Amino acid sequence: MRDFASCFSEYAVQVSDTSCSSYSSNSCISPNSIPSVQNSVTCLYRAALSTKRHVLITLTWCKNSLSQGLNITFSGDDPTATTTTAAATFKLNTNSRLFRKLKGSKSIEFHNTNIEIFWDLYAARYESGPEPVEGYYILITFDSDLVFSLGDTAHEAHPKKLRPNPTRTAKSSLISRQEHFSGNTLYSTRTRFCENGSAHDIVIHCSGENDGLKYPILSVSIDKKTVIRVKRLQWNFRGNQTIFLDGLLVDLMWDVFDWFYNPGAPGNAVFMFRTRSGLDSRLWLEEKMVQKDLDKVDFSFIIYACKNL
Q: Are residue 49 and residue 98 in the same domain, yes or no?
């Protein structure tokens, strides 16, 4: 008897199937088309400090015509808590003295815990977005224990002071990533859906009258393979599709209602990818937002797409 994942994948889009046709929506995109601008990237991590204590770490990279910066927020992760846990925030932007140093450290207190943040953006290399792609590091310690590391040059940062404590192994897991875009209706990005998986190219495009079409069409491709193609988008403005990627079932949801039915305001669309276990037959839309099993980390990737009027 076959396992559930293999059975279910027959009805899902096989992104890794090389026998399928290549990027079929390519004909709808002009070679001269310029993708929308990525304004901010927000990554949410859960750091396990102990078997019973978890902390959420939120990193937001942002960029506009006037400034560029990084915000780091620490908050509690207790689904049973009856009161809101106060958060601690560290801000690093072009208007601050700290950012102009490009390299440094900062200590803050959070729930009787001493948090130290170390950063080095001096040699950071950026592409079109606000998030560096190489030549940088962000390190975070809790009471001198290294619990978070980001960037390709982290091994160069104070190796003696930031050596992990073998008696307290803390692990940080990425549980969600949000990207905000503004501009036209062409969005291009790159992400991983699991920690050990490959990075995948994602292109979202809404073609319409400017492309010589009578009705708008939405297409989403991963690694140059179309995974959804929605015709008459103004009537099919919400929906979902399951794809099979890196051995995982990934639910893809789109909501472009505001693009057509919210006149007088910027058109905001939402595209969400969420992984789920092959043994879980439920759509992610039916699941509770609070994850009861802290050892199981599902990943959500959300694109907020603003179409300028």
A: yes
What is the residue type of 275? T
Closest among 77, 67, 212 to 147, alpha carbons compared: 77
- Which amino acid is located at 94 in the chain? T
Sign (positive/negative) of CA torsion 285, 291, 296, 299?
Answer: positive
Rounded to two decimals, the pTM is: 0.81
Tell me, yes or no, whether 61 and 123 share the same domain. yes
Does residue 285 contact residue 270 with C-beta atoms inside 8 Å?
Answer: no
- Please give the residue range of the domain that contains residue 235: 4-36+184-307
What are the tokens at 215?
Answer: 């009705």
Q: Are residues 15 and 109 in the same domain?
A: no
Looking at the structure, tell me whether residues 129 and 199 fall in a common domain: no
12 closest CA partner among 284, 298, 245, 299: 245
- For the chain, residues with pLDDT lower than 50 are 1-11, 17-29, 79-80, 82-84, 284-295
Tell me 236's DSSP state.
-
What end-to-end distance do the CA atoms of the chain give, in Å?
A: 54
Domain co-membership, 62 together with 121: yes
Q: How many CB atoms lie within 10 A of CB 36?
A: 22
Q: Which of 175, 195, 210 is the last residue of a domain?
A: 175
How big is the chain, counted in residues?
Answer: 309
CA distance 178 to 185: 17
Boundary-marking domain end, from 157, 175, 193: 175
Question: 3-class SS at 296?
Answer: coil
Per-residue pLDDT tens over the stretch 223-272: 999 999 999 998 999 999 999 888 889 999 999 998 888 766 666 899 99
